[in-house]
Amino acid sequence: METINNTEVNSMPRIGDIAPDFEAVTTKGKIKLSDFAKNKWIVMFSHPADFTPVCTTEMSGFAVRKPEFDALNTELLGLSIDSVHAHLGWVQNVRQNTGVYFDFPIIADIDMKVSKKYGMLQPNESETSAVRAVFFIDPKKKIRLIMYYPLNVGRNMDEILRALEALQTSDKYKVAMPLDWKKGDKVIVSPPKTLDELNARIADDTLEKVDWYLAKKSIN
Ligand code: BEZ
Q1: Measured from the CB, is residue 54 less than 6 Å from ligand 1?
Q2: Range of the domain at 6
Q3: What is the CATH number of the domain that holds 200?
Q4: Can you give the pLDDT at residue 134?
Q5: pLDDT per position as a tens digit, 103-130
Q6: Is the Cβ atom of 126 under 6 angstroms away from ligand 1?
Q7: Which of 25, 42, 44, 55 is an active site residue?
């Protein structure tokens, strides 16, 4: 295991890896990742600490927009290096203050086991808190997209949902998504790989073509 500032850290997981398995205690009981949310997508995210301002805005954002994650067949899974007791106190505090209820499991990673496995512990940023990470895990438990944000900048919920929908749409239609793609926009068809495909592409009047290698189609 690598050591940074005398803190042991695992190597970072990569896009395309099977999500490292773990068992953990959460605000909704014990979970084992490999048994959690079968046949669903998982958005697993860490926050630096309970009862802190930026984290409260982010967790509230996940809670308020949970119906949109539900509609995308996606379970939310939070994490911080805090105890379940602290998590429960924070959930109750936010519910009392704002009426927003964090109705998804939050891992109590007090021994940092999960944080270290997922590269969430980045000791040059903080030796005691997880950074703001987001892992998009598909129903085969493959990591499909990773975001890391520092302690002082909150994430963008629109972008998290947009990226999730882009991944799912890309899988469904076997297409790629252009800059700033959002639901309803045209998608990129993969470039031709043979001369026959090139000729078919040139002849296809249904596509919006910038050139033979950059063409878009509507999927609506
Ligand atoms: C926050 O969520 O506000 C925060 C947490 C840890 C360090 C800095 C800010």
Answers
A1: yes
A2: 2-155
A3: 3.30.1020.10
A4: 98
A5: 999 999 999 999 999 999 999 999 999 9
A6: no
A7: 55
From the CA of 216, how far away is ligand 1's center (Å)? 42
For residue 129, the CA-to-ligand 1 centroid distance in Å is 9
**pLDDT score recorded for residue 1:** 75
Q: Is 55 a catalytic residue?
A: yes
The string over 61-90, giving b where at least 16 C-beta atoms fall within 10 Å of a residue's C-beta and e elsewhere, is: bbbeebeebeeeebbbbbbbbbebebbeeb
| Separation between Cα atoms, residue 113 and residue 122, nearest integer Å | 13
User: Total structural domains in the chain?
Assistant: 2
Å from CA of 9 to ligand 1 middle: 21
Q: Is 132 annotated as a binding residue?
A: yes
pLDDT of residue 44: 98
Q: Measured between alpha carbons, how far is 191 from 162 in angstroms, rounded to an integer?
A: 24
Phi, psi at 215, each rounded to 5° = -135, 145
Mutate to test the pocket of ligand 1, among 122, 127, 129, 151 (most ligand atoms within 8 A of CB): 151
Residue 130's domain is classified under what CATH number? 3.40.30.10
